[in-house]
Amino acid sequence: EHESLVLQGVRAALADGWGGSMIASEVSDVLFRSPHWVRSQANLGILEPDCVNIVVHGHEATLSEMIVAAAQSKELLDYAKEKGAQGINLGGICCTANEILMRHGISLLGNFLQQELAIATGVVDAMVVDVQCIFPSIGELSHKYHTEFISTSPKARFDFAQHIEFDETRGLEIAKQIVRAAVDAFPKRNQRACVPDLKTPLVAGFTAENIHTMLGGRYRPSYRPLNDGVMTGRLRGVVAIVGCNNPKMVHDTSHVAMAKELLANDVLVAVTGCSAVADAKAGLLMPEAAEEHGGQGIQEICRAVGIPPVLHLGSCVDISRILTVLSNMVKEGGLGDSIADLPVAGAAPEWMSEKAVAIGFYVVGSGVFTVLG
Description:
By secondary structure, the protein is an alpha/beta fold. Helices cover 45% and strands 16% of the residues. The protein has helices at residues 2-32, 61-71, 74-82, 94-104, 115-120, 138-144, 171-185, 208-216, 224-231, 253-264, 273-281, 289-293, 296-305, 319-332, 354-365; strands spanning 38-42, 52-57, 88-93, 108-110, 124-129, 148-151, 162-163, 200-204, 237-241, 267-271, 310-312, 344-348, 369-372. Strands 4-3-2-5-6-7 form a 6-stranded parallel sheet, sandwiched between helices. Strand 12, helix 15 and strand 13 (369-372) form a beta-alpha-beta unit. The two termini are 26 Å apart.
C-alpha cells in the first residue's frame, strides 16, 4: 500500500538526516577538527604544471585527511623534488573536495562532471578514489594518459586501477604509499599540458556553530541578526541548494541560475556538495557577490556581517548541518514554533543519485518545502 511505503521511507530518511548523516558530520569534526572560515580558490586552473598534482575524489574523509598529511611531509616533498617537480599540489573533486577545503583550505578542482576533464589536462599524476560518484570511464581514460588511477575502498574496485586498500590503522603509511606512486608518475608525462586559466577565489568553512559567531560576534554569538533580518523584511528567507550535477543539463547552470535569482530577491543561500562547487566557480562564495547579485536586503546584511551571500556548509553528508541551523533559528524565536513555520526551502536542481532522493525525503520530512529537479 503506497502510503505505508512512503511513510516508512520518510521514517528511514529522517533517521539518515537526524541520525546517520548528522553523527558522521559530528564525528568528522571531532576527529579532524571543526571547519573554520577559509579562503581558497576553485576550478581546473588550480592545477600546477610544474608540480605533482594529486586529485582526491569521493566521499570518505579519513582517506583524504591522510593524503593531505602525507603530501605535506618533508620526506615526500623532497622526493618530489628529486623527480624534478617543484612540489606537491592537491585538489579535490566532489564531496572529498569540500571536506579538505573546509578544514585545510585545499583548492576545489571541480565537481561531478569535471572528473574526466581534470585527467584530460594531462597534468594529473594520480586520481585517488574511494566510493560514490566515480565514473566507470575514469580507469580507461587514465590509462590513455600517464595518470595513476588508484582505488582505495574494499567496497569499490575499478578496471585499469591500481588498488591500494586504505586501512585506518595504517592510515598515514598507506597515504604516503599513494603519494609516492603519484610522484613516480610525474616524470612519465608525455603529452602537452592543457590547464585552462580558470580559477575563482572563494570563502568557505561555515558550520551551524561558527555561523552564530559570525552573525553575533565572538562575545555575543547569536542567530538573532538572521532572525531579525527576516522579521524586519530585509531577508525573505533562506534556501539550501544542494546535490549533484546532471548531464541532462548544461553543467552547473541550474545551480547558479537558481542561486542568483534567489539573491536578487533577498533570499540567503546555503550550499553543500557539488552545488557548492558550482557556486564557487561562479564567484558566488565571495562577500563581493552580494553587491553584484543581491537585492538591497542581502547587500545590507552581508556588508554589515562580512559574509558571502552564499554560505558553503560542506559536503553532501553535511546537509545535516543545515538542519541544525534551522533548529537554531527556531530556538532563537520570533519565526514560529517549528522548522515547518520558517520561511525556508530546499532544492536539488541537478540531482542524479538515489541518495539525493533519501536526502530530499528527510528535508521534506523535517517540515521544509522541497524541490527535486
